[in-house]
Amino acid sequence: MSWGRDIRSKDLLMLPAAVDGGLEPQLVVPSRQAVWTQVGARIDDYTPEWTNRRRDDAGVALVLAYGTLAEAVNVRLNRAPRRLALEHLDLAGVRALQARPAQAMLGIEVAPRATAALDLPAGSPFLAPGGAEPVVIETLDGCRALPGKLASVAVLADGWLVNDDPAELGAMAPFGPRPHMPAELWLGIESPVAPSALLSFAVELAPSPDRASFSAVSTQPPATAPTLRWEAMTKSGAAELPVERDGTDGLSHSGVLALRADTPSAWVARALPGRPDDPPLYWLRARLITDDFPDDSRLARITLNGVTAVAARTIRDEVLAPLERSSTGRSRHRLSQVPVVPHSVLIDVADSAGDPFSEQDPAEREVPWKEVDDLAARDSEDRVFLLDAANGVVTFGDGVHGRAVPDGYRNVVARKYMAGGGSAGLPVPGDTITAQRSVPNLSGATVLAITTGADSETSGELVLRGPAEICSRGRAVAPGDYATLALTASGVDVARAHCLPGTDPRSGGGVVPGVVGVIVVPRVIAQDGPPLPSTEDLRAVAEHLAREVGVVGAEVVAAAPRYREIAVQAVLVARAGSDLAATGSLARDAIDGWLDPLDGFDGTGWPFGGPVRWDVLTRLLLATLGDLTAVSRLAFSIDGRRLAACTDAALEPGELTWPGSHILEIIAEEGPS
What we know:
Number of helices: 8
Number of strands: 37
Largest sheet: 6 strands, antiparallel, barrel
Radius of gyration: 31 Å
Structural class: alpha+beta
Number of domains: 5
CATH architecture of the largest domain: Sandwich
Distance between the termini: 49 Å
CATH topology of the largest domain: Jelly Rolls
Strand content: 25-35%
């Protein structure tokens, strides 16, 4: 077999059904027709004298009644393995993956009429009116937003290269095609206000085909960021700008760069050195201090007033509602807003059960209560709690495993927590979002980049993933463990993962000892093509598997999948009098859904390396389209190369399908002459 199992391969017989997760285990066929057929097959063996089985016969009526009643029983019986699997997973400590909020990069927009910079603190909320309810997006960092724009980007390396449209840099090399000291990158700001305080830029790098994979080894330290020196062009010459935050790691990947612009002398607008006819701008430059800058780094866009943000909202000073207190002393309380962002909850508990009017010792108040994954290993005085993020339920200890919450009235207060997560209603890059509160001269913000977020894992998805997590036990040893634990990489929303042991996806094939290849398929928003991971996604997955959970010394290469475009050519015969246009549209939708890499095949995504079989597609079309009576001359085209009719399309390990442009001829069957 040329294709392997990924973590969502099924160990139970799962069939499509209208249930959570789209699949249902099946012990018996639940339909009444199946019961009637099975009973009818036994009549000749058990009651051979019953030969006249007319529709109005009492025995036939009894069989029909039995089948109707047995259908309901069989449906409930099929739920037993699902319930049993969920109970076993719960006993083993496997929990459903919680909803995660989307991470975004915004460009703050200041009104052109503004005559002063705008101080935007961290936690400033914006509204994205996308779904049934507006999605709140809060900034994670503060900035001093300038009116105006970044007007020019210039590179000084063997001469000047100037681009006056920083929004479309066209894969511009930040320090020239062959970066070396003393190359320089110059940024020119057009603004009525001189930059000061905290100056921030959103930097987006262009995707490079040479960076479709990322390698990490546990025995090697993480790669160091290139060394850059940022300077402002002032009256007295170049003045260094200290780096406050650098999410780009020295312009080596996309992120937000924040500089301290408290220069020792005034920052003045001037023309670019050596180009006196250029308009005067506020210039700052980055000088390359070392020669280790990546050759394939290319700038796609740089935006002034860039900030990082998260699709969640902050709630402060909320009194938790008590739910119950067990006889052992363990208590449960609830937060009002869900889903809760894990590890965002800060809780105060007043230890004043004896006197509700007494003040808590300030030293006690300073000790925070921390969120943990398990109370079993905690001491009696540990201020810890468990969080059910989906339901907002907070569980405290019983005084033996974790400190118990004393009796009291409104004595459990969340200083702050964040609520949000999921993929519904999120904006797409290029959308403009508005400030939730009116701020003078704040026009809004532009979404420059955003991840998909993640919805809470359903019980159906948990049934498919849970057994693999139990097998891995939090460590990547077997190939399936690498695929399972790739889903837990921080900051990455991995939809699917597949492991190719002993294979380097960067090479043409063959066994490479000591290398573990991991194919990563992300979730994406508003995709125009197949889902491809970013360089940052691949970096996060490779480093997580190599340095945190993988085998010491093994090189993990995270790579994007190779997609094979599959187009279908066929003649479809529909019943006479049917709507041929509608039949053709439904057929294209069914083929596209079947070939989808995330949700196709049997609802869990196309199997990595799985062949595209013409007979399976034929049966699918005939079973799905009620007006279809025949499928003739079905043939596949793979990446534009047409195969012979009734021939399967073979895929290599690690490859996935992507639907192409199908050519379907819909004809009506001939009626009786």
